[in-house]
Amino acid sequence: MIMYNQTGEAVVMLKERSQSLRYRNVQRGSLKLYSRRLDQDGIPILSYFEEGLDYGVDWQEGTVWRTENSRIPDWSSHIFYGKNRFDQTGMSEFSNEPYTVYADYSYASLTPADNGKAGACAAILPACSARHEQREQISYVVYGDSISTGAEASEHRFAYSFRLYQHLQRLFLNSSVEYHMKAIGGETSRDGMNRLLRDVVPMKPQLVTLAYGMNDQNRMLPDRNDVPVHEYVSNIRKMIDTLKEQLEVDIILVTPCAPNPLWKFSSGEIGEYAEALRNLGREYNLPVADVYRLWMEEIEAGKSYESLLLNNINHPNDYGHSVYEQAFLKLLSE
């Protein structure tokens, strides 16, 4: 067994019910639960909770729960508690932020950690690697919807795209890596396809991450998704073809995370969009950062959607963005 450290894991707790941490076999005495807020200067202020007074722990199972008189916020006070097919239309206050606390702990695991390796990059990022060998500048363009813009991340440095950018800087030390945000909130793959030639191609990037699907799967009308899967595939295919025809560029396809299944406008079909993207990756021999698979592993491990989505709908919190980051690290470690 190898000991690992988990930091900044988001946890939302309900009444005195057990809430799973991501990992079991937590080292006894290692857990720190705390709230986090920013002062007027943007400096984080941490307030720690006490085991026994505020929460209990099952170290082997990796579960925590509120005590009867806990200072930890109780999610049963949330406006959407107990509501199926909830609708936030016209509402301004429905964030999970006031209910989110954070966990740092050590745990034992047989599974080795994934870390990006420069050798792996040569295989999956040939355009970037070629520029690196010549000590030339590498340009990275972020393309997608609001998740790619970093929506709901507490600071942009915690957004998955910026985390990837920082990894690229470490992997390609001989090159200057540029970071260009071209994602737009609210977009579907249809929107991305329509502006690709205008907003991305002229920049001549060496790397583009394509991350659409969350808004495509929305079912705002009762009889169909905003962008059906077959059209989604067509749109992504056209973007891939355009980039490959116009540029010498590496493309990473990014499967979406899963929205809250209790949200009124969730189609429940996000997995089909993820599978369609995997199929396109196989067809074009492109790397796929499979966020959806890791996201569902979080859910299967007992993490709640409330602990992963800060807006309780479809925007990951900082920890959720770290799941995206892990998808890229797994890719760069293969």
User: How much is the average pLDDT?
Assistant: 96
CATH hierarchy: architecture of the largest domain:
3-Layer(aba) Sandwich
Name of the CATH class of the largest domain: Alpha Beta
What's the number of structural domains? 2
Q: SSE order, as H and E?
A: EEEEEEEHHEHHEHEHEHEHHH
| Oligomeric assembly | single chain
Distance between the termini: 22 Å
Total number of beta strands: 12
The CATH topology label of the largest domain is Rossmann fold
Any low-confidence stretches, pLDDT <50, length ≥5? none
Assign an overall shape: globular
Helix/strand class: alpha/beta
Proportion of beta-strand residues: 15-25%
Total helices: the number is 10
The major pleated sheet works out as: 5 strands, parallel
* CATH H-tier superfamily of the largest domain: SGNH hydrolase
What's the SSE blueprint?
Elements: E1 2-12, E2 19-20, E3 32-38, E4 44-48, E5 55-58, E6 63-66, E7 100-109, H1 118-124, H2 126-133, E8 138-144, H3 146-149, H4 160-171, E9 177-181, H5 189-199, E10 207-211, H6 229-246, E11 250-254, H7 270-284, E12 288-289, H8 291-300, H9 305-308, H10 318-333
Parallel strand pairs: 8-9, 8-10, 10-11, 11-12
Antiparallel strand pairs: 1-7, 2-6, 3-4, 3-7, 5-6
Helix pairs in contact: 1-2, 4-10, 5-6, 6-7
